[in-house]
Every structure is written in structure tokens, then in C-alpha cells.
Amino acid sequence: MPGQVRSGQIIGEREERMWFLQQQYPEMAHAHALVYRLLGRHSVERLREGLQEILKAPEYRVRYRFGDEGVLRRHDEMKVATPVLWRVQSSREAMEAILNLQETSWDLAEEAPLRCCLLLTPEATMLGLVAHRVLEAAVPTGWFQPFANFLQELETAPGGFDTGLVEMTDEEAEAAPRRDAETHHGTAAGDGDIRDLLLEAFRQALGAPEMMADDDFFDFGGHSLIATRIIGQLLNVHGIEVHLNDLFSYPTAAALAEHARRLLGSRQHEPSAPAAPDTPVPLALAQRSLWKVYEAFGFNEIFNIPFALRFLDPVNEPAFKRAFLDLLERHPGLRTLFVQRDGQVWQEVVPCNASSLYKWFWFSHETHLSELAVEASYRFDLARELPFRIRFMHDESSGQQVVSLLFHHIVLDEWSVNLMMEELEHAYRARVEGNVPSWQHQPPSFQAFALKQHAAGVSQAHLAYWTENLRDAPRGKPLPAPEASSVREEPSSSTGGWAEYKLAQDVSRGLYVLAKRNGASLFNVVYAAIAASIHYLGALDELVIGTSASGRNDADFFDTIGYFTTVVAHRIAFPPNLTLAGLITQVKGTINESMPYSDIPIDLVEEALNGGAEQGGDRMFEVFIQLHAKNKLNGAFRLQGGECIEFRQIDPEKSESLLGLQFEVLEEMIEGDESVRIMMSYRADHYGPEQVERIRLTVGETLARFARTPDDEVRLGRLEPRLVVS
């Protein structure tokens, strides 16, 4: 037999991923069909007896259920399935029956992961095997081999493998229904079809119509957020499954097509309808998580998101306001009040025609540039005012216009910022010409997402993924201060400071090259370098590091502006002989594997690990690393006729930090030049000035050593900066 399965055994990572994929996309078929045409005449009873003997193997009678501790396990059922016997009139009807069997929903808690049937046609006997992909993951060495061996003894010949095709006559083939459900994996035509779809997805997401099938996704500005968006759309719209690790390892459409596969039974579905504007809606999970912290900090400005743009060319302020009103009409989530009632917070959408009742826009003649510094500390009253403020100012020294864009985080995340800037450019281009912008489609509202998530409830399977991975993980503690360092003894607070790294060009280039050599993203490499720095500084064998995840697992809402982002935590281990390549691979695999489960906010994980009680002040992680990948805050509004209005982001001052150490990685593209900056913010009650400088120097030197080493297999200990060796 191909393998042994122990009852009650915790399942493997790929096996678990296949199980979760079915839960997330139940409308798709998560199975492969294998069909054999038996040559000659055979005893049906002998066939059934032989097949039933094979089906007694544990791997073919296993069930998947959660244990009392919330962990997904295999359970060996003693009941053995009996091959189904069907009589049909033709090979075409036999194929239809197998395809129907393949598309029938699967309850792996009650049904084995293999379906077996014998189909008797007037011409021949056919054997159909439909295997759930969880079986392929559990027995990767060949779940079908025992069946092939049995048929070989009967002197049979296979009629097809994996594609669901058998040896049909020309007439039968012509009459057979054409289905989008056929798997194209492994055929030249199928690879070409998938390649073309991948290339078109790359072109659209990267805004690069000139991109060819052999061009590198990352060379055209691709990064993990764009990759996530592409993968979700390919799966939801075309039924094409691409693993994130494969995209990093094979970043061209031509190479990736060989590792992508079209899921059987995939079908398009309509996006959710927007919620009615006057319907109170509960908070989404990510918003609830944010609100807990917001309330704990006295509803202060800790979740303000201040953007400021300096326009290098004159901008039409009335047209800018009108363009933003167009965005408010498209995205009700931006025009939302947050009202507490009966112990619960509700979202109440303000009708679009009532937005004029709220003060949210100031022209430059109404304000002064000096107000930019204090605007970021404005305290919103979310129950009585819109969660954003737009204030134009005039810089008399340069003659340029500056705009402050202040949002409360509860309505805007990193993904939404880029959406907002893209749509603002589109609407502004129309408004300066006196036109109303036209849109290709209307995205569903954020309120529709919140209602859908609320109706589904918390995914216990996704929660179990995090609790299993983080159980018994070390708690986040401030890094120990060296003996000579003065440590501040201050009460716990969010007061802090920040420092900036502007990486030298050769270091930035070296990190990009290192990422490409290891089939990783720049963020993976910088994350690995920061993690290694913390390992060096604290002599830690294991770290739990926090990071933000998009939280957008439903492609229906990829074009919706709102707050989907969740905070997640990853365990990174530092065994004695860990190499540079090993650390990068570990970081990449850990992050990419966790993405399908990123709808679960960290506070729910902490509560589950803590027996249902809120965690209090002892957090799961001390260090947080976040990517800001080539955002649209440095760019231009491109108008009709070729005119451009260029703008540059003004960095906000940072005086508070929720987290002990936070590293923000900024990939920027300004006038065609790529650059990498890292902003480090810290809590003053955790780190004194000498320690902050020590951390800053260690991270900077580690990044440089990562970038300049030619040997990816070098042991991590040999890259430790001398300044932290005692």
C-alpha cells in the first residue's frame, strides 16, 4: 500500500491546506478524476471484490474531524466503501456520470476521500476513481498505484489519467458536452491557456501591457500584495490555483503555468450586493479587533492615518473635492458613522446626498501650512463626524499646494490606499474636463463584507490553524538592555519615537538579487534580516513576530475600500546550523502558508490560547514588521492630453507606538528609481536612547551583510555584526 494512516493523527500542512481550501471555496470541485476503460470482458463480481479489498487500506477509509482541542485530525473508520455499480448507454453517459460524481460536494468528516465506481456500457466496462485533493496530499507517492497494479493483473489498459478523458469514438467525442470543469494541467493546450490568463492578470495588475510571458513579475514592480490579489482573482474567476510560493519561485507567466492547475468544477459567481445605506451593520472581525484597542486607549488618535502630499504642479481644488465625492458615492464604507448601542458598535452609512452636512474638506484659502503638524493629532468623534478630513494648504515659500489626507484606520487599510489613489486619479481626470467619471464595475460595499462575515461567523478551522501553530510559543518581551545602557523606568504608555534607515543603493540592489536567488520577495529578505538582528541582540532561539495581513480572502471585495487588515503572528526558529538561505525559506514559507487563514485577528487567537479570557498587557510579540510596497502616494495624476500633476508624500511625524518595536519597510518608486527605506518606531517605556541606537546599527549592518554575501548557504552566525558580539 502507498502509505499508512494512524487514527487520530494530526494531519500534514499540505493535507490541511487542501481541507481548508474546500471549506473556503465549497462551490468548487476539489477532486481529480481517473478513468480506465477495461479491455475485453471481465467478471463484475471479481472486479468489485478486488476493488473492495484495495479500499480496505486506511488511507482510503479515513475521515477528517476536529478533536476536542480544536485540532484537525485523521480518523481511521472501519467501514469500507463498496464500489458503486452503474449501467449506462454509452461512454459519453459514463463520462457525464463521473463528472457529476466529481462535482458533488464532499463532507470529509463523514465520507472517505476516494469515490470508486464501475460503469457498464454496451461496449466496455469502465472504472472511475474520483480522489479528493486531500488524499493526494496525504499519499503523494501515488494513491492510485494499487488500482493500477490490480488492473494490470487483469491485462487492462488505461484510457486516460487526470484529465478525465477516455478512449471515445469520434462520434462520442463530438457529442460529449464541453465543460469548463476539465483540468488542463499537463497538456500543451491547457498550459498555453493558463499561461495566457496568467500573463493577462500580470499585465492588468502591474499596469504593464508590454509585459511578455517570459518577463519577471517582480521586475515589473510586483510584490506580495499584488501577488495575493492576482492569485485570489485567478482562483475565484477562472478556477486556476496558484500557490504563492510557486509564484515567487517561478515569477514568469510561462514558467508559472507549468505549476498552476485549473480546479475541476470551478464556476464564476456574482459579487455580493452592497448593503442598503440606511441599514446598521455590525463591525467586521478586523474592525472589532481594532475597536478593542481604540477603546482601551481612550479613543485617542492612535489609529489616525495621516497622509500629506506635496503637489509639484498646480491642482484644481474644486475638481479634487468633486472627485473625492465620486469615491464617497462608490464606497459607502468611507461615509460611515460608528455608533455604540446596547453594548455593541454599529456601522451606520451616511446617505451620499447628506455628506454635505458634515465638514470634511478645506480649501487652501481656509487654512495655513502650519496646521499640517497638528492635523495628524486630531481626535475623531466617529459617532458624529465622517472618519476622514481633507485639508489643502499653500506653501508660500515654494508656491506649491499641500494636501493633508487624514483617515481613521477603521475605514482604510494599506490595500485601500492604493485603490483610493487609482480611483481618485480616474475621477479627477474626468472632473477637470467637466465630465462625470465612468466606471467599469461597481464594487460591493464594505458593509456587505461585514454582513457576510458576520453571518458566517468565526472560522473555527482557521482559528485552529493559529492556535496549533502558536501554542506554547514564547511571549513577546522587550529586548534585554546591555549592562552599560541606561534603561528608562517609565509607566506603560504608547509614547515613543522613531528612526529611519535609507538603504544605500548597493544594499538595496543586493537585497533584491538575494530575494531573486532564493525565489522570495524583498519583504521576505528584509523580514529575515530584521528577525536575525533581534536573534543576535537577544540571543533568542525562537521569535514570535507580528505582521499585518491583507485579510482579503474573498476576491469579490478586492476592489472595495475598507478595513480588512488583520494582525497575525509567525514563529521563526533559529537552530544552531541555520543558513541564510534556510532562514529566508523559513520566513517565506511561514508567511505564504498562513495567508489563507489571515481572516482571524490576533486578539481572537490570544483569547483562544488563554482559555477565552482577554490577554491583558502581556502580548504575543514584541516586534512587528510591516510592508508598504510601492504605494501610490508618490506619483502623478495623468490627465487627458498627456499633462501630469506630480506629487510626493510628506512623511508624518511619529510620537506614539502601540508596539515595542515596529519596522515599516517602504518599497518606493520615484521617477523610475527604486529605493528601500525602513522606519523603526519604538515605545520609550521599553527602550532607552542607547538601546535604540544599538538596535538601529545592528539592523542596518545585518541588512548590509545579507546584501553583500555571495554565499546563500553561509551559516547565520557568521553574518552577526561585530558590534553586538560581547
From TrEMBL:
PROSITE patterns: CARRIER, PHOSPHOPANTETHEINE. InterPro entries: ACP-like_sf, CAT-like_dom_sf, Condensation_dom, PKS_PP-bd, PP-bd_ACP, Ppantetheine_attach_site. Residues 189-264 form the Carrier domain. Keywords: Phosphopantetheine, Phosphoprotein. GO terms for biological process: amino acid activation for nonribosomal peptide biosynthetic process; secondary metabolite biosynthetic process. One of its GO terms (cellular component) is cytoplasm. GO terms for molecular function: catalytic activity; phosphopantetheine binding. Residues 476-496 are annotated as: Disordered. It holds the Pfam family Condensation. Its cofactor is pantetheine 4'-phosphate. This is Condensation protein. It comes from Billgrantia endophytica.
